[in-house]
Each structure stands twice: as C-alpha cells, then as structure tokens.
Amino acid sequence: MEPNPLFTRSKEIRQDNWGRWLCYISVSILLLLVVTIIYFISSKGIQTFTKNHVSVWSFLTTADWNTGTLSGGKTDLGALALMTTSFVTTMLAAALATPLAFVIGIYVVALQPKFGQKFVQPIIELLLGIPSVVYGFIGLTVLVPIIRQHFGGTGFGILAGALILALMILPTITSLAIESMRSVDPSYQKFAYTLGCTRWQVIYHVILRISAKKLVVAVIYGVARAFGEALAVQMVIGNTVQMATSLVSPTATLTSKLTTDIGNTIDGTLPNNALWTLALILLLISLAFNLIVKGFTKGDRAA
C-alpha cells in the first residue's frame, strides 16, 4: 500500500527543515565560541586582581610596569602608559586617515565615478589585502629612518606608529565611506541640481549630510581596527613601557606589549596574568566600539 501523499513530507519540506537546523547549529556554534572566548579571557584576566592581589585602581591609574615583587610583598604594576599610548596613537592615526578617506570617497562617488570605480577603488581593495607585517617592515626600513633624520630621536615612537596605522586604516575607512555615500538616493541629488545648487553644494548639503551617520560608523570601524593592530605597531613603536614625552619617544601600546612578552612568561605567574589583563582590557574596548556602532545604526534600522 502506497503512503498517502497528503500525510508525507515532500522533498522541499525536508530540505527546508535541514536548512533550518543547519542555521540553528551554525548560530549555536558561533554563540558558543563567543561565550567561550569571553569566559576564557575574563577568567585569566581577573587573576591579576584575585590571585596576585594587584589593586584595580592602581593597575588602571599608574604607569610603572614592574611585574616583580617590591619590598613588603607589594607590586608596582600599572597599565596607564600602555592605555594612553594606545589611545593617542589610534586617535592620531584616525585624524590623519579620515580626511583623506573622505576626499577619496567624494572623488570616487561624486566627481569621477567611472574613473574612480575602475581604477581608484581596485587600488583601495589591493591595500586592504596587504598583510600588516608588510606595513610594519616598510615603517621600520623607510619611515623610522626618515623620522630619525628630520625629527630627531631614535625614530621609534607614537609618530611612526600613527603614520603606519593611518596607512593601514585608510583603505578600511575609504571603502566604507564610498559605500555610505553611494547609498544616498540619487533623486535627492537631482532635486538639488534642479534647485540651482552647485556640485559642491550637492556634495556638502546632500551627500555628506545624509550619509553622516554611516561615515561616523566607518571612522569607528577604522579606529577599532587601528586599536587592535599589533604586529605593525610593534615594529615601529619602540616597545618601551613609559609615558611618552613626545611623539618621537619610544613607548609601547597594549597590543605591542602583548605580542612582545606573551611568549616569554610562565602560565599562572604575575607577568603572564598581567598580560591576560591587558587582553581583557582590549576585549572590553572592542565591545565598547561595537556598542557605539550599534548606537549609531539603531535609528537607521528602526527607520
């Protein structure tokens, strides 16, 4: 007796169920990975305070990075210099890269769209694919000697790090800025031209005004990438934990300190736990960047 087709699942329904379960499993694995990473870094990062009894306030507000034990059994361990250098280097890089990225975006979208799409945008995409070690090597062999010759010092420091980071995040901000400007409805531009606006008035009052939120998001993504960059910065920053007195003073960032020392410490010791605390700080800052982006894009999604 053949089964009644009304009570049997068709091939399409079975494929739909398989696809649904595959999506559920993939999302579950992704969530599990995120939770595992956050738990692992958090559990290791707080041991500096729970196991080694370092003061949280002292760790965040002092600049001396001394992982040894002082007289009286106390430790003098602070990450302020590392955090300050990271923020200063990142913000300086963003200040250098953002105006140039916006100008390139305007050129590609509003001034020469055909030439920009055919020649300029492929170059931007090519820069996106260059490994960070290549940028770091260029900075070490070309940029550092130039800074040493013209600005004094060793050539290593915030200035070299900021210039390398600006070059690295320029393609990221530019690509996102181009997509943001292209998302503006062309009819708005046509209406502005019919009202007698010039090209630059259309660019400023229509394209830039409408895409302003998305452009801010592009900058935030660029800043987030710059803040988490390690290898290229490590090669040009100097890797000396101290509060920089000038842009050409050797110093260190959170990421450069991590990559330099993580292989030279023993698991469970104070030097190792302190590095995991730096990793936890980087994780929290990355989450903060994501929350800021969500705050900027929340209104657009609701609309």
UniProtKB/TrEMBL annotation:
Chief location of this protein within or outside the cell: membrane
Highest rank taxon of the organism: Bacteria
Subcellular location(s) per record: Cell membrane
InterPro entries registered for this protein in UniProt: MetI-like, MetI-like_sf, Phosphate_PstC, Phosphate_Transport_Permease
Annotated ranges, domain ABC transmembrane type-1: 87-293
SUPFAM superfamilies, per the entry: MetI-like (SSF161098)
Residue ranges of the TM segments: 21-41, 87-111, 123-147, 153-178, 215-237, 274-293
Membrane disposition: Multi-pass membrane protein
Key words, A-Z: Cell membrane, Membrane, Phosphate transport, Transmembrane, Transmembrane helix, Transport
Name of a matching Pfam family: BPD_transp_1
Purpose: Part of the binding-protein-dependent transport system for phosphate; probably responsible for the translocation of the substrate across the membrane.
Stated family: Belongs to the binding-protein-dependent transport system permease family. CysTW subfamily.
Protein name as catalogued: Phosphate transport system permease protein
